Amino acid sequence: MTRTRITATVAAGIACVAMLFGTGGTAAATSSADEPVPGKLLLMLDASGSMKAKDPSGLTKIEAAKKALTGVVGALPDTAQVGLRVYGATVDGKGKPTPAACADTQLIHPIAALDKTKLTTTIAAIKALGETPIAHSLTEALKDLGTSGKRNIVLVSDGEESCVPDPCPIVKKLTAAGVDLQIDTVGFGVNAKARTQLQCIADAGKGTYYDAKDAGALATSLNKLSQRALRPFTVSGTPVKGIADEKGDAPVLTPGQYLDNFGDEARQTARSTGGFESRLYYRIKRTIPGSTPRVSVTARPPTQSKAVSAEGWSVNLTTEDGQACGSANEITRNENLKSQIVSVSAAAFTIDPRNGQTTDDTCASADTLVLNVGRTGDGGSAPAEIRYVEEPPVTDGASLPAAVTEFDLKAKSPRSGKETRVIGGTSFNDAEAITSGTYSTSIVPGEETFFKIPIEWGQSAVFAVDGPDRVWYDRGLQEMLHVYGHVRSPDRQPVDTWDGQDSMWISTGKVPADPMVNVIPAVAYGNRWAKEVSGFSLAGNYYLSVGITGEHGGVGLAGVSIPVTFSVAVNGTESGRPTYAGPSPDASGAASASPTSTDDTKATEATGAKATEDEGSGWVIWVGLGLVAVLGALGAAYVIIRTRLRGSRTE
To answer: Most CB atoms within 10 A, among 247, 267, 424, 646?
Structure first.
């Protein structure tokens, strides 16, 4: 079985390059996550002389910023590790970047367990005075945070760097090796040059730029960023290093969550057609006879220098003698210098025992499988989580409900009642937990926000993006925006059921009347053997994401928070729970196991494998990357090309 999904947003006149991966067998995707690790948050405030200017609220900018920071402190948990650094607060260079003014940065509250009274008093004493040494301040900030653990900087500035021509190259060097470092920036009433600098800093720091035109927008942005920063790692796991030699000693993975880096120079190769390719090998150890290994790979590719780029990822599982057991492919497009999360997942299911087939199923009985993960794109470091969850066989398979054969793809939005404000996470690991209800969240173009909701055996759900209640065109722009919602299963498998052509387009500020609806059919163990619903064969947390593409609105509305409403309803009561011959799988997981490697076991070449009947569709999708966008009456139009999730081993 091969599963392929493509989300391609193509600007007019730009042709995509087809990316072709070698096909393998169906892989299984699930995992176990590390225990949450508290992060360290450093707030950085511009206290330069320009912050004395008036804000539209009537306060000076420095007073508005201090008020917003005080509100942030009041909302943070008592266990938070928080510090505060300011720049431009003590040396008046009289408008000139003197050496003293360009060294004017202080850690006025060291990073430590939150003392709300002390930090609030410290904030109140800040006065605006001097220059804007952003690059030097960030250099010192990294020293404040140390070199390990999740580290977040939230930088607020109302102007551009005044001590070096461009701070961005310096910041790129500082953040080059920072897998667990993120820098978010907030421009407070900034001009175009300052906005460009702050956007570049956020991109280099794997963060997001927010545009705050007034005190209210500043408070909203700071609250969102600070709360997100203190959640668990967005990319985490036990470090492991796959090998590029398929015949070498690949590391052995037992159930758990791992972290590897795709794109380091030693393990990626240049392609003759352009770009780079990485293909790394691992060994998947079965610890329960007859189990279903589920493997997923999640990454956020690096920001590229060109406006539109594409990443292709593949997961292949084979037996040690090369028999195909499963594969999955994913392609994601990164727009307007903003990378998006890609998650590729598959499951090596056993043959359906109810079809009467008695042929040996080597994929289901092998003690060890070979995993190879491929990445094709523009290269660069891409930390990736590899999650392996082992699902035991069941003892009551004959009595479990059959696969769902019908469900209503035209379901209506469950929107009702008052909206609840939520922030959301930046990926699976810090996804915000929600229940049935209607919610509102703020998203900037190019951002995707994650939530999770438990769906038990026998339950179904409806997830709808109802759309912005209003769109902020605060610069008088009439831009086109694309708002979307995605669903991933507990093993991070993309399982959207909506038609990509019916996704939500917003043009000239007009919001479509119809919401974008995803339907989650009843979760059943037997779904794994039905192509239409194979992704809904595991109970647990389903991941919902809401986002706005950044290619058009991302240019003119960079950093502008747009309120988006979405609704979700979980229906039915739990039924059809399988009885496992072992611990129930938990895709949201326990601590990662440590990777091992052996001298007498080899990752063998995955060639000569027989493709299943579904694999042909994957090639059509890869070639689909070569489509050129069509021109619309309003200018450049978007095309979303997507295949619904399909797949099961139906031998």
So the answer is: 424
